[in-house]
Amino acid sequence: MRNEIKIFSPATVANVSCGFDVLGFCLDTIGDEIVVRKSKEKGFRITRIEGFELPLNPLENVAGVAALALLNDINLDFGFEMEIYKKIKPGSGIGSSSASASGSVFAINELLGRPYTRHQLTHFAMKGEALASGIEHADNIAPALFGGFTLVKSNAPIQVLELPSPKALYATLIHPEIEIKTSDSRAVLPKQIPLQLAITQWANVGSLVHALHTNDYQLLSSALQDVVIEPYRKGLIPHFDSIKKQSVLAGALGCGISGSGPSIFALSEGLATAKSVEKSMRDVYSKSGIPFNTYVSKINSKGIKIL
Amino acid sequence: MRNEIKIFSPATVANVSCGFDVLGFCLDTIGDEIVVRKSKEKGFRITRIEGFELPLNPLENVAGVAALALLNDINLDFGFEMEIYKKIKPGSGIGSSSASASGSVFAINELLGRPYTRHQLTHFAMKGEALASGIEHADNIAPALFGGFTLVKSNAPIQVLELPSPKALYATLIHPEIEIKTSDSRAVLPKQIPLQLAITQWANVGSLVHALHTNDYQLLSSALQDVVIEPYRKGLIPHFDSIKKQSVLAGALGCGISGSGPSIFALSEGLATAKSVEKSMRDVYSKSGIPFNTYVSKINSKGIKIL
């Protein structure tokens, strides 16, 4: 069994338009790198974090809390050290904390010879996620650990479904460098919603799952609608409507808020279209004066990868 | 081209627990028989109805209104006569009016050499359905015309998705001979629902569609939950909770209200289990003093059949 491992832990998109709180998918080109090694000293230490300023104290770090949740479950006469090379900006809405939490428990599980299933790792990683968001949820953790598209059927007990996805599906993302407070993105959500809108939303969720199973891009496009959450949250993201309009004009199948924002995702058939969509997004934000980054990525069907 | 056709137009189950207003499936052993023949006289006449007392005037009959919607769309120098042998009791909650409306347009389309697609037939049949329910909806018409499990993604324009279903899936139904007024079954529905319940419901709809694609009976079972509508409507159906409890104890994957009731459906893996479920349902109602009928049926993957 190896004593050290280096992994790539990907960014993820949660919610995916109609699938608020349940759907997510995994990205390929954006992610953190994490090095974990066994140590003679028991317990768990984070020895280095690069990229963004985050606490080294495991109890204050999502990767640390996730790791400790796992290590509290197992009896070992040795410990672990971790280095985190953070590439995903915290608060960007593409699963930064999930990448750290998922990568942490994935890497430790590998070094232990995989005693835990991915469902169990999801459970541990959710403890870390809760440190960042205040709630144990798996909508970013599931796609990071399972890869591809995932549907979180339930959080307690955790039940993740692995959905297939068409091979030529690409995501385009824009991350406007603004801060949306978690409290704000929650506060705008309604507690009650009209039954008629809920029906439209679950028709779209069912249609989206069917479209993924049947490689039906046209259906996927028509199912990528969020009539419930987006109308409330889009006001927190400057130029959201323009980004969406221009993305679709550039050929995107659909466009929506990534997680609770501020990042915006679009899905496209084929890399060329995804790049046209990226250009259309850049054109909108270039005029805004707001700093931003864009990414194009294949859907990552594997999830976390060993480097 | 033939001048006369006899068809079997099946009963159907709409809503299917979590899939309120969008999901439905088709039954095999219960249905109306309809005979349609060309006539030299133009227009459309219903010459005979057996089984239940229903109006012969096409404008007052769902099969007639559906037929006229089709015939108004096409120029013919001949007409049609129809005989309806009604086996499905109107108001039973298993798509009685849909069977008549769907069968009517299906049969005429066959005699015309199939100028219309099933989506177009759905559109015409919905005009008939509207006479019975006051609303144009396709949640019983779609499974009758397409067979199997269907998801009505939208009503205007009509978009029906054909979902696969596991081969060993059987339905058990109990029809308590009570009347639920459509106005009552609508009046109990909330206009607003909690967002959290809506999320649970669309997680279940997505899971149900995935379960149908993957032949996953266990997932199908856990997805067959209705947290939104059933709590409001079950009070209209005597002994609903007992039927549900005993069905599941007898091995059913799930149990819910068929359409807007009063019929109750259960789904099971295998005919033997479906028959045990039938017995458990009969045991509950035998003590009630309420007259009832039960049925066991394979999922009908074809829909309407030519006899």
TrEMBL record, chains A, B:
It comes from the Bacteria. It is an enzyme of class 2 (transferase). Its main location: cytoplasm. Transmembrane segments: none annotated. Its EC number is 2.7.1.39. Pathway: Amino-acid biosynthesis; L-threonine biosynthesis; L-threonine from L-aspartate: step 4/5. GO terms for biological process: threonine biosynthetic process. The keyword Kinase applies. Residues 65-148 form the GHMP kinase N-terminal domain. It catalyses: L-homoserine + ATP = O-phospho-L-homoserine + ADP + H(+). It is found in: Cytoplasm. Residues 209-286 form the GHMP kinase C-terminal domain. One of its GO terms (cellular component) is cytoplasm. InterPro entries: GHMP_kinase_C_dom (IPR013750), GHMP_kinase_C_sf (IPR036554), GHMP_kinase_N_dom (IPR006204), Homoserine_kinase (IPR000870), Ribosomal_Su5_D2-typ_SF (IPR020568), Ribsml_uS5_D2-typ_fold_subgr (IPR014721). Belongs to the GHMP kinase family. Homoserine kinase subfamily. This is Homoserine kinase. The gene is thrB.
